[in-house]
Amino acid sequence: MRRMPIQKPRKGSITAMYKRVFLHVRSHIGLLVGAVFCIVTVSALEFVIPQLTQYTIDHVIPGKQYSKLLQVGAGMLAAALLLGLFNYCSSRLMASVGQRSIYDLRGELYRHIQTLDIDFFDRNRTGDLMSRVTSDVGMLQQLISSGMLSIVTDSFTFILVAAYMLWIDWELTVIILATFPIMFIVTRYFSKRLRLSFKRVQETVGEVSNHLQDTLSSIRLIKWFSSEDYEGERFAVKSRDNMNANIGTVKLRAVYEPLIDLLSYAGLAAVLLFGAMRTMDGALTVGTIVMFMSYLRLLQNPVRSFSRTINTVQQSAAAYERIVEILDARPAVKDKPDAVVLGPIEGHIRFRNVDFAYHTGTPVLRQLNLDIPAGKMTALVGSSGAGKSTITHLMTRFYDPQQGTVTVDGIPLADVAADSLRSQMGIVSQDILLLNGTIRDNIAYGKRDATDEQIIAAAKAANAHDFIQSFPDGYNAQIGERGVKLSGGQKQRLSIARALLRDPRIIILDEATSSLDTESERAIQDALQQLLHGRTSLVIAHRLSTVRQADSIHVLDKGQVIESGSHESLLNLGGKYTQLYELQFPQDNKDNAAAGKPVAALASDRRRQQAP
Ligand SMILES: Nc1ncnc2c1ncn2[C@@H]1O[C@H](COP(=O)(O)OP(=O)(O)OP(=O)(O)O)[C@@H](O)[C@H]1O
Fold first, then answer.
1. pLDDT in tens, 241-294
2. The ABC transporter domain covers which part of the protein (predicted)?
3. Can you list the alpha helix ranges (DSSP code H) found in 217-227?
4. Is there a contact between 284 and 274 (Cβ–Cβ < 8 Å)?
5. What ipTM, to 2 d.p.?
6. Domain ranges of the chain
7. From the alpha carbon of 118, which atom of ligand 1 is closest?
8. Which end of the chain is more exposed for a tag (fewer CB within 10 A), N or C?
9. Inter-residue contact 192 to 199 (CB < 8 Å)
10. Which CATH architecture has domain 17-327?
């Protein structure tokens, strides 16, 4: 789903919105029935009060019935009290229905987002998604608690009052009702424009949220480069867009609301003029005119409050469209209905004639053939952007290739239940993903039922136990957002402990040590050896010293394997690998050249020296 340009409101989206909202409301039907009962009672009470006024003017006053005054007063007070009580109950019940339904919808949305594939997250920005789940869902909340309530109450009252007025004096009522179609047309005209305008507001909120998410999570970068002013200006642009979008909405409302007021007064003038004439002719009583005026207010309430409610409805419809854009998104990478749930795997991964491009369309892997045998260490080297990490993304089935197949133990990944595959894989990469929480939570993230003993054993094997113990809170120490309270090496050892705890069959090390200094690297090398032992492993590294122990090394260039073999055989080949090696170990080559030794012999020397 790309960032959408502002579109015309979709036809029927309000009906669709109510349908979907009702699906959620339906599960709280008991509360809804209670609310509807209260609403009907409120309408009935609003209908009764003007009757008392008319009775007082037409009967009590002319008949000088002093004794009745007390009864009328008490009746009025009782009606007002009941009105307050039922209004209170209906608001509370509807708010409860609204909150619960929105809770359900927000949960559905969050769960749905989690089912979407990585490609969806490549295309969408986190801040915008966050604003859809928070602010847009919040808009719908208003709709159920207040908006829907007043529409239902007012419409019910409208029908009741209009029918009664037609019965008393149909001619006068028809004159009054004549203003309503105009109100309706005006309302329709503005409602479409208001919805576009609200959608723009919500989109600008998404933009502001994106910017905040980007910059606040990279606050160190901003401070390093002293770009606070620059970011302040960029934020101001987004914030100004939001302000302008809000002003646009206010402008529309500023025209719309007085227009509706004007039409309401026209109705009042009609009652006064024609009502007075008919009273002077003796066809109506003064009490009836006063009652009509009170009813006129009740009649106009739906339209007036519709002008208020229309804001809520249109705001909600705009928000709903943004929510539906997510709910309608379907992952391209998803399990087949009859997907194979993998038991314990050997872990033999094969790429056969694989072509792959991200959504940008630029080919990344071209007719790639690659074998990652079970229980062996395979290494990938090659220049930056050659497609090494992309291979790991296909192995974990974050994406499907456009051509060719990737298999695990001979089964195409497309036929496999992704969870059953990923649960047998561990990844340690340069970008260490940690969540805010304790050290314990982070180590146990991939195995939440792990015991304390298992967590400590994994931490010990990852050489992390000692530094964890040095924290006052030990395993309960909070690591901060993305682990900001830890050093690079500490974070890396936590991620190794996390991978070890999961005991995966396949392990991927993607530049796992490249950001560490030599000392830290040495500290985690042992931990890595533990992790790799006896598993299928794919190691990606720029530093060739990291991969020379691999059973086989593949050199990747522009999405294709151009050389494969052991460290020695690749050095003997004198190709790309040798070039990379010479760049990284120039001294070795000089010594070698001086001694007249082939490069391969040098490599063997190094291995011999390293051998115990
Ligand atoms: N999510 C993505 N969306 C679009 N293009 C991407 C995405 N991830 C990577 N690419 C592009 O795919 C190509 C290969 O990227 P990849 O990360 O696989 O390279 P690499 O060999 O791992 O590089 P490095 O050694 O620098 O990590 C690059 O040109 C990169 O710009």
1. 999 999 999 999 899 888 888 888 887 888 888 888 888 888 888 888 888 888
2. 349-583
3. 219-224
4. no
5. 0.96
6. 17-327, 568-612
7. 1
8. C
9. no
10. Up-down Bundle (1.20)
